[in-house]
Amino acid sequence: MKRRGKVVRHSALVFFASAFCFIGHPGIAACENSKSKSAPAKNQHTKRRRLVVRQSSPRARKSKSHRTAESWRAHASQTAIADFVLGYAHALPANAVPLAPMVLPDLNLTPEVPRAIPVEPNERAQSAVPRRIHYQLGLTVSGVYDDNIDISPTNREGDFYTTIEPMLNIGIGDTEGNFVDLNYRPQVYLFANHSEDDALQHLITLTGQYQFSVLTLSLTQEVQILDGSGLTTPSGTGTEFTSTNLDVAGRTRLNIYTTRLAANYPVTGKTFLTGDLGYSVSDYTSLLSSSVLSGDVYLNYTYSPKLSIGAGLVGGYDAVDSPSQDQLFEQFNLRASYELTGKVSATLSAGVEFRQATEGGATDNGTPVFDGSLFYQPFDGTNIALSLSRGTLNSAALAGEDYHSTSVIASARQRFLQRFFVGLSVGYENSSYFSTESDIASNRRDDYYFAQASLDFNVTSYWTAGVFYFYREDDSSLAEFRFNDNQIGFRTTFTF
């Protein structure tokens, strides 16, 4: 009787296991074995049940659609990193950008999408449902007291103002393949006592990529409608700072339109060609406007999965409003991209630039140019970033003059108690002006310093709030461009 009872119970188990296999229940890897063996031992059933538990875990069931969602999150973080690498290149014009030359090439040497900033533990989980349309909505509201709203050297005016910054990001496709991505950030500035300074700014970026069988093309269009004395700029670690148009050193209205076409073509298994064609227009209402047409081509070599190197040529034409002269420029650059570990990555482009005025003016021969970045995450919750740049830019404030801009920015962010974040960004820039006219001397030199400290708190996964302090100072050889400024404020951000 005992043996018959065991046989009956075992037959029932085999029946239910077979039914599960017929339905197609996921994670049952040993179904066929359950059919083939009539009387497995008890320890074999235990092993099978443990196997089912392990194979049914969320980590084992991670799908391609989930990886696609992660890639879009990496694409959104990529924008912050790129802004940090290029300094003010996305925020200010080619002839008034103090922190980065727009003519330097893209530092991404490999066809892969750059690594995203590490995700904090309280970030919302991504849905496993496959989606080709991805979107993100955000809203940031800030209240700031500024003791020098016009960054004036003598006529200092203080005021409290409110900023309202909605954000819309929508994408179609996969950032590792073909996609279209739109990012729109309007910024409203409302002053308590100086309503004449109220402003509305628009920041629009449209990016598309298409992969052929061996060729990858990408097209980016940026539109920036600016009105003020600074622009909030991501640092690359999750913190922000206010970028300043040092060449103008004051409130100004400016429209910037930038178009960039990039191509990547593999030649062999380890070598590939990259090329860019760009056109940028900086349209001032009352100062010297300009437009830059530039192109570059690079031959790159993948030395190892962690290291890529390249060499290439850059050339362009810089058209400036009269009385300044139009200019031609050429560069020869070497560049490298290196990822030591998952916690350390670096890019660097360095070379020499030659510049000539088209109407027989002064020439600038053999000027060093470089652009680089370093990202380091020594521990979970700790992010450190460093940016270096040097380039030659034409002045919008002084006719017939260009300047060499050399800058360094360091930023760090530390998480503690799981929800609090302390951030610090510091920077220095030197601007050395020179004349493009053979019979005119230039004597302007600027040394600019800034520091911004912040404390933020994650109220929920959708809502953050914090306070910050920002200081900036320009020590210029010309008195009309000197200033110092203090800002203290609070901000809150909602992300959906």
Report on this model:
- With 496 residues, the chain is mostly beta strands.
- Helix content is 13%, strand content 53%.
- The strands form two sheets. The protein has an 18-stranded antiparallel barrel. A two-stranded antiparallel sheet has the order 6-7.
- Strand 3 and strand 4 form a beta hairpin.
- The longest helix has 22 residues.
- The N terminus is likely disordered.
Summarize the structure.
The protein is mainly β and about 500 residues long. The chain contains four helices and 20 strands.
Which key phrases capture this entry?
496 residues; mainly beta; 18-stranded antiparallel beta barrel; two-stranded antiparallel sheet
Bin the helical content. Answer: 10-25%
Helix and strand composition category: mainly beta
Q: What's the β-strand tally?
A: 20
The CA-CA distance between the termini, in Å, is: 65 Å
| Computed CA radius of gyration, to the nearest angstrom | 28 Å
Secondary structure tally, helices: 4
Secondary-structure element series: HHHHEEEEEEEEEEEEEEEEEEEE
Strand content: over 45%
Chain oligomer state: single chain
Shape designation: globular
Uncertain runs are 1-129
| Biggest sheet details | 18 strands, antiparallel, barrel
Task: Output mean pLDDT.
Answer: 78
